[in-house]
Amino acid sequence: MNELSVSRPNNLDAYWMPYSDNRYFKANPRMLARAEGMHYYTPEGKEILDGTAGLWCCNAGHGRREIKEAIQKQAAILDYAPTFQLGHPIAFEAASRIAEMTPEGMDKVFFTNSGSESADTALKIALAYHRARGESGRVRLIGRERGYHGVGFGGMSVGGIGGNRKQFGALLPYVDHLPHTHGLAENVFARGLPEHGAHLADALENLVALHGAETIAAVMVEPVAGSTGVLVPPVGYLERLREICTKHGILLIFDEVITGFGRLGTNFGAERLGVTPDIMTMAKGLTNAAVPMGAVAVRNAVYDAVVDGAPAGIELFHGYTYSGHPLAAAAAIATLELHRAEDLPGRARAIEPYWQEAAHSLRGLPNVIDIRDCGLIAGIELAPRPGKPTQRALDIFRRCFDEGVLVRVTGDIVALSPPLIIEKPHVDRLIGTLADAIRAEAA
């Protein structure tokens, strides 16, 4: 166990916290000081059961010795090396390890530092691909309502969460959106993939008719949308989307930042859901969040078109100072070895039926209007307080934390995504504490 002593900071003013109510937090701070296994600990030593794998990312649990030692060893060997016109061996090894896990034919990996950077990178690769093939008129990018693809201007433009967009103006041009798949009355309290809604993918045909297929570069969707409240794709929806994209020469991008690395009981959501995209983004679970890292995997044909179709010299004018950072690459290799050695996707599959039953046991509690699940993800949707949207879920989040359990809220939805090492007693405590909080906030 990490015995490092971490004191409470004496000044909270300097740090402008992301996606936070800074004024409320700094008046009512809830702090995490260390982590081990399934738990965080406050500066006072109170144990907090992690029901969210940090932010969907610590799939192997916290404080894993193997990852820590890999980072320490690499820091002593090579702390940093640029990857512009140079290379270092461990970045190539990390890319090869990822390529072993991606769907067949997706063997080329571009490194980023986050899911946001992965989203913007994927969109730029899509544009570069069409230009390399002589179709430079394909500049339009299609996202989906209630989609989340990070906070870069590209991903935010293609994303479809109004609160993330409204402060920042018009964003990118030539962007359109498919309808989201949530809200069909027949799918309320569905277990796993809902039965109704595959037809919603046909909206892509409407956009093709409106804009012309020759103007559309790519469609980006999450296999399972997480940050917008756990929206699970209807049976047949992704297959239909794949079919239409192929028909019209449009690249299909899967944002696998939360669904990758075992979350759905398979290496990637593409495998669980039986649909292979042309480009796939990833981050979070790639390094178990020990060091920031993201990546984009592409079909070999996409890579070949961009690289072989370019004149001599640099083929893709894109990259980051920290692409393939040595410490991140070391963390990725150690993390992926843990996933293989401990079969974390298999552990997720084994406990999924118990997890699903536990999540749906919340049905019938006050104000619970829907429950959705897929893999080791669950979303519990609540009726908002009249005139105070989001407040009920926020109060439940705070109450759960004070009772020693970490959940995540988005709008009036409680989202759960625990580490894949979770066991039945952890599930019982997580769901039991949440149930008590839902009852306590019934008014």
Brief synopsis:
By secondary structure, this protein is of the alpha/beta class.
Notes on the protein architecture:
The chain is α/β, with parallel strands linked by helices and 443 residues long. It has two domains: 22-60 and 343-440, Aspartate Aminotransferase, domain 1 (Alpha-Beta Complex), CATH 3.90.1150.10; 68-341, Type I PLP-dependent aspartate aminotransferase-like (Major domain) (Aspartate Aminotransferase, domain 2, 3-Layer(aba) Sandwich). Helix content is 36%, strand content 14%. It has 15 helices and 15 strands. The protein has helices at 22-27, 53-56, 65-77, 89-101, 115-132, 153-158, 162-165, 203-211, 237-248, 269-273, 300-308, 326-341, 344-360, 391-402, 424-440, and strands spanning 34-36, 39-41, 47-50, 108-112, 140-144, 175-178, 216-221, 251-255, 279-282, 294-298, 368-373, 378-382, 405-406, 408-410, 413-416. The strands form three sheets. Strands 4-10-9-8-7-5-6 form a seven-stranded mixed β-sheet, sandwiched between helices. A four-stranded mixed β-sheet has the order 1-2-3-13. A hairpin with a 5-residue loop joins strand 2 (39-41) and strand 3. Helix 5 packs across helix 11 (300-308) and helix 13 (344-360) packs parallel to helix 15. The longest helix is centred in the first third of the chain and has 18 residues, at 115-132. The radius of gyration is 22 Å and the shape is globular. The mean pLDDT is 96. Keywords: Aminotransferase, Pyridoxal phosphate, Transferase. This is Aspartate aminotransferase family protein.
